[in-house]
User: What shape does this take?
Amino acid sequence: MLLAAAFLILSMALIVASSELFTNGIEWLGQRLNLNEGVVGSVLAAIGTALPETLVPLVAIVSFGSEQGNEVSIGAITGSPFMLSTLTLGLCGIFVYVFHRRGLRPLELKLDYRVLKRDLRFFLLAFSLAYLACFSPADPLLRRGLGTMIILIYPVYIYFTLKADGNVGEEPGALYLSRFGGSSNSNSLVLILLQVMLSILGIAVGAYYFVDGIQDVSQMLGFPPQVLSIMISPIATEFPEKMNSILWLRRGKDTLALGNVTGALVFQGTILGGFGVACTQWNLGLDAKIGAAVAIVSGAITLFMANKEKLSFRYLTLGAVVYLICILVFQSNK
Assistant: This one.
């Protein structure tokens, strides 16, 4: 039990560290390409920090193509949007208040609501289709066609995001490889691409051992793998989103902070949702259905508040409360 838990913790640490490398490298790539903050936050940073939760279900199916592999994959696919739309947004609200109390930022959020509204609309479209698919006939051809259609929503989202106006953000911290190599040239395209490739390798290795550890621990504790992956997997794999958003909030970059979260929601709702529908059995248990439904409702309410341009730290903080209530429900259904 201790050995399995140790491997699970080490794999989580590798995923987090590799994701940080990826995000740093991808932000420098955005600087090289002269992309605006909306693209960097909602696309580049979101893709980078969404890689762990993307690879976990992929690795689960490819490497553990059993019933448990499907269970872990489905739990990760539904658990990631659930946690982002509740706990992650809740932490954003909490840290806005904390930073305000420490005199580091104003209490009011300064947002480009166009970014959030665009992201949330695409997320709700894609993830709602994926959710409804679990109630459709289990015809493989129908599921694959619908899953492919959901995945293809993401390129449309990228097109509209790239077309949108916006300002180029400030340079991120120095490229990690330039720090370790004693070079001050963070603009080296070779170093940027090398760091991105190394980080992807680290995420893939970490995801493999994380899925293996999830199955071992779930058997020892008596948890169904789908339930455990809903509760545990997103805590580790979405740590980069949380940290990036918290750091941006501290610096008053609210659009980047929340755009990172909503952009990750779009990526997960389209790429992960489509993959789940097309490539897994997509038999959602009660907890997975609850988690997915909460993510959709939370996204819809957040979109409503964004349309009114009334998002505040108080509303965001409620997400953490919703998350805790749902975890208690999952525990009672164990």
In short: The CA atoms of residues 47 and 264 lie 7 Å apart. Residues 67-101 form the longest helix (35 residues). DSSP finds 14 helices and no strands in the chain. The chain has a mean pLDDT of 82.
